[in-house]
Amino acid sequence: MLSTNLTAGMGTPRPACIPPSQFFAFLATLTVHPNFTTRTHDVEKQTAADDALRYLQQVVKLVGPSNSGLVRAFRFVEAQKPNTSRNRRAVTRNITDLADEEMEYDAESIRSRYATKESLWSKADDFWSVVGWAFNCSVVHPHRWRRWKVWLELMLEILSADLESHAEDGTIAASMFAGYLASVGERGRNTKRRLMRAILADGTPGSLAEFHEVWRDETKGPRPHKNQEGNRQHKRQKLDLDNGDFGDYGDESSGEDSPASSNRHSRSSTAKPSRRDSGNDDDISDESQASRNKDNEPLTGLAAYGGTPSLHLRTRLLALLVRLCALSPTTFLDTEDLFDIFTEFLRPLPLAIFSHFVCPPRPYLDPDALSSMLQMLFRPLLAGSGAPVYDENLLTQEVFEECFAPYAAGGGGGVDNAKVSVMVESLLRLLWRNGGLVGRRSLREAVERGVRVRREKVAWDGRRRTGAKALEEDEAGMMMEASAQRMMSVLDLLD
C-alpha cells in the first residue's frame, strides 16, 4: 500500500503520498532486525524486511531525505537525551513518545514493540555504535553483515544527499550527519577517536567489546522448528483487539512451520559453505569463518577487514567526514585536525589495508583532500630519512620530486618502505590524473632513486625475522616491487 501510494501520480504535479515519520523509523528497524532476517525461517517475515528496505530506497530516490521526513525519523533516542544514562535498559521513553513531542504530527502510534522497545533507534546508543558493530560483523558474523551492509548503504545515501542539500543553503550544522557527529561530544580528541575506531572496527575482542551487538542474541541462527506434538501442546493465546492483545499474531514462532519455510530451511541446510574469495564476502558462511578463528589463524589481506565491500563503505564514511569538515570546519573539526586523526589510525594498519586507503582502485577523496591526507601520512614515515619537511600542502611536480619521490622510510624494514612506495605511487597517479606531470629527466631520476634507496634500506636491515614477521616482510617486499613497476609504467606512458 505504501509503495503504491508513493508511486501513484508520478510524472504529474501531484505531491507524493508518504506516511508520518515514525513509520520510516519502524521500517528501518524491520530491514535489519534479526527476528525478520537471520533468526527466522519464515519467508513472510523475510519478505517483509526486504519490502521495507525496498520502500525506503524508493522514498530516498523519489522524494529525498529532507522532504520525506527521513532525517527526522532516523534519530537515535539517546542522542536526543544527553543527560540520561547510556544504559539502554534505563531508557523509559520510546521513539513514538519522541515523535509525538518533537516531530509535530498527530498520528496514531504504531502498536508494535519493533517501533518502541525493540526499535533500532532505541536499542543502539548512537549511529557510530551501529557503524562499529556492522563492520565487526563484516569480519566475524558474515550472515549479519549481509543485512547491515544494505542498511549502511541506505544510510550513506541519505546522509550524503542531506549533507549536499544543506551545503547549498549554508546550513551544514543542521544536517543529519552533523547531528550524528554531535553525539560524539566535544570533550577533546579522545572522544573523536571513537569515530575512527568505529569505521575501522575489525572484529577483534577489543573492538567487539566497544561495539557490541544491537539486539540480544543477534548473531544466533534461526530458532529450531517445533514438532507437531509441541504445536498441539502450545496453548493458544486469547485474541482481544480492543485491548491490543493480538493473540498468536506476531508471535516469533508463527509461520516457522509453513511449507514454504520448511522447504527454504531444507535447501539452506544442505548448501555447502563457500570458500572465501579475493575480497568478496557476500558468499562467506559463518561456518567457514568460525573454522578459521578456531584454529587461531588470523585473517589476512582484505579479509581481515571484511573484504572489498566492507572497505568500500569505510572509505565512503571517511569521504563524508572530509566533505563535512571542508564545508564547515567549525561544525566538527577542520580538515588538518581530521587528517591528523586519520594518520594516527591509518598508519599502523596492515599493509594491504593501508594500501586500500592511500592508493585505492577508485579515488574516494577529491584531489586536494587526497593530497593533504597523503602529505600528513608522509611526515611520521619519512622522519629521520633526510627528506625536507614540507608544510605548504600544495602538491606540484617540483614538490613531488624534491620532497617525496627520492626517499625511503626513516625506519628500517620492508613494511614501512612498502608503505612509502605505495604513497609515492599514489601521489604520482594523482599528478597524472590531474595533468600535473611533465615528462622530464628529473622526474624519472627522482622516482628511480627512491626505488633504489628503499630497496637498499630493506636489504641492509640487519634484523633477523622468523615466522609471521618474516612472511610479512616478504609480502611487503613483493608489494614494494609491484609498486615500483607500476610507477615505471606511468613514466613510460608519460615519455
UniProtKB/TrEMBL annotation:
<feature type="compositionally biased region" description="Basic and acidic residues">
    <location>
        <begin position="217"/>
        <end position="232"/>
    </location>
</feature>
<protein>
    <submittedName>
        <fullName>Uncharacterized protein</fullName>
    </submittedName>
</protein>
<feature type="region of interest" description="Disordered">
    <location>
        <begin position="217"/>
        <end position="301"/>
    </location>
</feature>
<feature type="compositionally biased region" description="Acidic residues">
    <location>
        <begin position="242"/>
        <end position="255"/>
    </location>
</feature>
